Amino acid sequence: MAPKKVRTASRNPCLIPGIGKFSRSKMYHKRGIWAIKAKHGGSFPKHDPKPAPAATAAVKPTKFYPADDVKMPIPNRRKPKPTKLRASITPGTVLILLAGRFMGKRVVFLKQLPSGLLLVTGPFKVNGVPLRRVNQAYVIATSTKVDISGVNTDKFDDKYFTKEKKKKTIKGEGEFFENEKEETKALPQDKKDDQKYVDTPLIKAIEAVQDLKAYLGARFSLRSGMKPHELVF
Amino acid sequence: MPFKRYVEIGRVALVNYGKEYGRLVVIVDVIDQNRALVDAPDMVRGQMNFKRLSLTDIKIDIPRVPKKKTLIDAMEAADVKNKWENSSWGRKLIVQKRRAALNDFDRFKVMLAKIKRGGAIRQELAKLKKASSA
């Protein structure tokens, strides 16, 4: 037997909003309540009534009441969603960075992080851009795509990129200047390993396409005669 | 310097303004001093101001206001499409369209190809210079 389609429209056509064509008794008949009752021996099938919740222990009235009725603010249940990704940006797309230290560089898009920022890598060996977060607004998406299936980006999220909190030590005046020299830290080895782990399959996919490596190594710039609003990226 | 391209029934023209920009049409009738009735195989026949038309060298043989089928057959017989695509004007337009549709990656590849071509030309030139000076 073909599966029964669930009826979605009401059986009572609307004449004017709020006024249906059929009366209550006609609707009772149309809905077949009489047939359901007959099938279940005279009464409409009901769920068993839920057991009443056990009476909670009597709450002692508090001794202190505030003088004025203070309005409690409604708790904010809103959970922000990550920014809507432009349709042109899919994993493996080559993006052109428009601002910042790596302005003009062509990089490979890996995935969108829960904060909405885009996770991007050079690859590092090709153009010096490491694993980095980038805002969608400062990016042009080209239509060139790289095969990213060999790359596993599961371990990267926003917490990976946050700065480590420096332990505040109370310093004497003379020690201020000495300590500033120690600020610049070398990049920890596990971050370098992560970079290599992401980049090796990526570089293999890049070298498979002709000129793509040179393309990613070159910076984008506008020349005379190039009109950005007419360019196809 | 007399005129070489005349407005006449059967003259193929290029639309240079408006909604039908870039389309090849055939002048099928003249309405008055400023307007013509134009038609193309994939277009509804309509009027157009002469100012919107750029006349081409191509002319086909049709009676005044032909049926669509007659028009299409006449265009096939005169081979308008190929004549247009092989003419220098037609080829320029095709190149312009291709260049406008280039991807960022394609533009990069074109740049590399131009550099390579230039290098090859310069090498040959150097050889010839050497040969002529020796």
TrEMBL record, chain A:
What does the entry list under GO cellular component? cytosolic large ribosomal subunit
Q: Which GO terms describe its molecular function?
A: RNA binding; structural constituent of ribosome
The UniProt entry, under InterPro entries, shows: 60S_ribosomal_eL6, Rib_uL2_dom2, Ribosomal_eL6_CS, Ribosomal_eL6_KOW, Ribosomal_uL6_N, Translation_prot_SH3-like_sf
Where does the Large ribosomal subunit protein uL6 N-terminal domain start and stop, copy by copy?
4-57
* A GO BP entry: cytoplasmic translation
- Asked if the keyword Lyase belongs to this entry, the reply reads no
Q: Which UniProt keywords apply?
A: Ribonucleoprotein, Ribosomal protein
Q: Does the keyword Chaperone apply?
A: no
Family statement:
Belongs to the eukaryotic ribosomal protein eL6 family.
Instruction: List the protein's name.
Output: 60S ribosomal protein L6
Organism for this UniProt entry:
Canna indica (Indian-shot)
Q: What is the lineage of its organism?
A: Eukaryota, Viridiplantae, Streptophyta, Embryophyta, Tracheophyta
UniProtKB/TrEMBL annotation, chain B:
Q: Known InterPro entries for this protein?
A: Rib_uL2_dom2, Ribosomal_eL14, Ribosomal_eL14_dom, Translation_prot_SH3-like_sf
The question of whether Ribosomal protein is a record keyword is answered with: yes
A Pfam family annotated for this UniProt entry: Ribosomal_L14e
**A biological-process GO annotation:** ribosomal large subunit biogenesis
Report one GO cellular component. cytosolic large ribosomal subunit
Note the superkingdom of the native organism.
Eukaryota
- Please verify whether the record's keywords include Ribonucleoprotein: yes
Family annotation (Gene3D superfamilies): 2.30.30.30, 6.10.250.2270
Alphabetized, the UniProt keywords read:
Ribonucleoprotein, Ribosomal protein
* A GO term for molecular function: structural constituent of ribosome
Q: Which residues form the Large ribosomal subunit protein eL14 domain?
A: 45-117
Q: Which PANTHER family match?
A: 60S RIBOSOMAL PROTEIN L14, LARGE RIBOSOMAL SUBUNIT PROTEIN EL14
Q: Which family does it belong to?
A: Belongs to the eukaryotic ribosomal protein eL14 family.
The protein in question is named 60S ribosomal protein L14-1
Q: Which organism is it from?
A: Canna indica (Indian-shot)
Q: What is the lineage of its organism?
A: Eukaryota, Viridiplantae, Streptophyta, Embryophyta, Tracheophyta
